[in-house]
Specification:
The protein is of the alpha/beta class. It has helices at about 5, 15-30, 40-50, 75-85, 105-115, 160-170, 180-205, 210-215, 220-225, 235-240, 245-265, 270-290, and strands spanning about 10-15, 35, 55, 70, 95-100, 120, 125, 145-150, 175. The protein has two domains: about 5-180, Rossmann fold, CATH 3.40.50; about 185-290, 6-phosphogluconate dehydrogenase C-terminal fold (Orthogonal Bundle). It is built from twelve helices and nine strands. The radius of gyration is 21 Å and the shape is elongated. A six-stranded parallel β-sheet has the order 3-2-1-4-5-6, sandwiched between helices.
Length: about 300
């Protein structure tokens, strides 16, 4: 039986790690047509050489009018800018979705204007990726068994929602619907705040005059904790600013926990320190068990 991937004409806008991995997986599944849109000609040439797309252009007007679904794989501000600049080129009746890490601003900025144009917007956020970026780090299994949050509104067409759900299922992901505002709160704790804490640890440990000595003592634990601090600085600054309200709430909770821990250490309260470590260990162990059962995301940035 024909699948939605095999019968749809698909545009991938943005050919970095996320867009390139999506195109790679779609081609692996035998997609009917995969077209690329990118700012740089070199990215399109590489994608064509690697057989990730069958055609592409730096001009969205040459691609968007002929596709059934467009995956916008750009940072959040660039996604808003791209859709508004190319609104007239989206084919009426087609679906637009994205992979952005912050959702409410995208729903607020894009859903209504696309709806007025006769196009459906269903926001998406796959909990996948790494600290690496660019097409060179694309891989076909990036989205396999990863949670993808979808953030439709109550007014969106059920058929459009179900089509996006089916796309991600065929790609091998686990689509879950979530309100856009709630999504932003969840990822502030699960992704955005941890990224900033990873950067904080890297800076506090290595960003001063004693960095050489500290660096010699840093081993696998430090490497694991600070891995995502090597991510794209501009992108993470944008994410932080776009989701700052939810991130500030997460940082406030983190600051409270840190203050309590500091006080326990200052008081020499071994029992409180043990309790803190035991609770943290239990929380992570439970999360790992859930992850092994396929109930949680993993490898998210």
């Amino acid at each position: 039986m024909a699948s939605i991937v095999n019968t749809s004409r698909i545009a991938v806008v943005g050919l970095g790690q996320l867009g390139g991995s999506l195109a790679m997986r779609l081609k692996e599944l035998g997609a009917r047509s995969v077209y690329g849109v990118a700012r740089r000609t070199a990215s399109l040439e590489q994608a064509l050489k690697d057989d990730l797309i069958e055609a592409g252009s730096t001009d969205a007007a040459e691609v968007l009018p002929v596709v059934d679904i467009a995956f916008i794989c750009l940072p959040v501000p660039a996604t808003i800018e791209f859709v508004k600049a190319n609104l007239s080129y989206f084919r009426p009746g087609s679906i637009v979705t994205d992979v952005g890490s912050v959702k409410k601003v995208l729903v607020d900025e894009l859903r209504q204007i696309l709806h007025d144009h006769g196009t459906y917007f269903i926001g998406g956020h796959p909990m996948a990726g790494s600290e690496k970026f660019g097409l060179d780090f694309a891989r076909a299994d990036l989205y396999t068994e990863k949670i993808v949050f979808l953030t439709p509104t109550a007014d969106d067409e059920l058929e459009a929602i179900n089509l996006v759900i089916e796309f991600w299922r065929e790609i091998g992901s686990i689509p879950i619907e979530l309100n856009a505002a709630r999504h932003d709160q969840v990822v502030a704790y699960a992704s955005h705040m941890p990224h900033l804490m990873s950067a904080l640890i890297a800076k506090a440990t290595l960003g001063h005059n004693e960095a050489d000595e500290h660096g010699m003592a840093c081993a696998s634990g430090f490497r694991d904790i600070t891995r995502v601090a090597s991510g794209n600085v501009d992108m993470w600054c944008e994410i932080t600013m776009q989701n700052r309200v939810a991130i500030l709430a997460a940082l406030d909770d983190c600051q409270t926990e840190l203050a309590n821990l500091r006080q326990s250490i200052a008081d020499g309260d071994e029992g409180q320190v043990v309790e803190f470590l035991e609770i943290a260990k239990r929380c992570r162990d439970d999360w790992l068990e859930d992850s092994a059962r396929g109930r949680q995301g993993n490898d998210n940035t």
